[in-house]
């Protein structure tokens, strides 16, 4: 995927409400404007990378892009699980992410338990891969410094600008 690493930013919106409640794995959801601006070569599946809420710390993350076949969604989504325990929800805050690599295609599962096990495996794989030097360096990318905190005048979606920034490195 030539578009990786891919940088994007947007407001955290309410999703389907399944991540925390059903799965025990909370996710932050991007609005359609961010999902619709993904490059054509970013296929559906599970990705790993770095994420920052507002102007906070940068944490490891995994992201599902697609239709979540287990739930038979009819709308494509981008659901980010930031590998960090937050004290409270951050709906309305700005989430900045850099997608670094691809783990696997999306697929359906025979049970909720199998889905949860796969997500936990994805999280462990992301933690390991993000320790590689070529991935760790993106944690400190200037994309994350000065990140808007949700009240900034910057537009909530900066996908095309962010890709240009990366290409300029």
TrEMBL record:
Biological or metabolic pathway of the protein: Cofactor biosynthesis; FMN biosynthesis; FMN from riboflavin (ATP route): step 1/1
A Pfam cross-reference name: Flavokinase
Region spans: Disordered: 145-169
GO biological process, one term: FMN biosynthetic process
Keyword tags: ATP-binding, Flavoprotein, FMN, Kinase, Metal-binding, Nucleotide-binding, Transferase, Zinc
Entry protein name: Riboflavin kinase
A GO term, aspect molecular function: ATP binding
Signal peptide region: none
EC number of the protein: 2.7.1.26
Catalytic activity field: riboflavin + ATP = FMN + ADP + H(+)
Keyword Disulfide bond recorded: no
GO-annotated cellular components: mitochondrion
Top-level taxon: Eukaryota
Species this protein is from: Sphaeramia orbicularis (orbiculate cardinalfish)
Cofactor entry: Zn(2+)
Function description: Catalyzes the phosphorylation of riboflavin (vitamin B2) to form flavin-mononucleotide (FMN), hence rate-limiting enzyme in the synthesis of FAD. Essential for TNF-induced reactive oxygen species (ROS) production. Through its interaction with both TNFRSF1A and CYBA, physically and functionally couples TNFRSF1A to NADPH oxidase. TNF-activation of RFK may enhance the incorporation of FAD in NADPH oxidase, a critical step for the assembly and activation of NADPH oxidase.
Keyword match Metal-binding: yes
Riboflavin kinase domain segment(s): 1-131
């Amino acid at each position: 995927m030539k578009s990786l690493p891919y940088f994007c930013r947007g407001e955290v919106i309410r999703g389907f409400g399944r991540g925390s409640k059903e799965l025990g794995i909370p996710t932050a959801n991007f609005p359609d404007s961010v999902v619709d601006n993904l490059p054509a070569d970013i296929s559906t599946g599970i990705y790993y990378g770095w994420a920052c809420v507002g102007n906070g710390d940068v944490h490891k993350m995994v992201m599902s892009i697609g239709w979540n076949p287990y739930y038979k969604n009819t709308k494509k989504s981008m659901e980010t699980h930031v590998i960090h325990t937050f004290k409270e929800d951050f709906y309305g805050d700005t989430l900045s992410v850099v997608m670094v690599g691809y783990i696997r295609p999306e697929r359906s599962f025979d049970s909720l338990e199998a889905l949860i096990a796969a997500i936990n495996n994805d999280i462990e794989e992301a933690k390991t891969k993000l320790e590689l030097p070529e991935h760790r360096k993106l944690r400190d990318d200037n994309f994350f410094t000065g990140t808007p905190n949700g009240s900034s005048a910057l537009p909530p979606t900066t996908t095309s600008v962010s890709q240009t920034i990366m290409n300029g490195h």
